[in-house]
Amino acid sequence: MAELSEDDVVAILGPRVSDALAAEIIATGITKAELQAAYEHVVKDRKTHAHEPLEPGRFAQVVDLLSRHRGLFGEAGSTLQ
After folding, report:
1. What is the residue-wise DSSP string for the chain?
2. Domains in the chain: how many in total?
3. How far apart, in whole angstroms, are the C-alpha atoms of residue 32 and residue 77?
4. Is 65 within a domain?
5. Total-model pTM
6. pLDDT tens for residues 25-53?
């Protein structure tokens, strides 16, 4: 299994991701597939306003990290959709 790279993180989350957030995500040991799933989970939660409880682990840790970074999801003050 190859280690997740900063380029992988940017490819999934987009260019708004900071170096610090990318480093935090990589440090969890999450895989590329798990990061994609975590991102999709957060997007779904934001659309439905439903927050499903997650089992503790790296997936839940990354979901929490992504949930705290609102600017990744176009919520940095712009009203354009």
Report:
1. -PPP-HHHHHHHH-TT--HHHHHHHHHTT--HHHHHHHHHHHHHHHHHT------SSHHHHHHHHHHT-GGGGT-SS----
2. 1
3. 29
4. yes
5. 0.80
6. 999 999 999 999 999 999 888 777 777 78
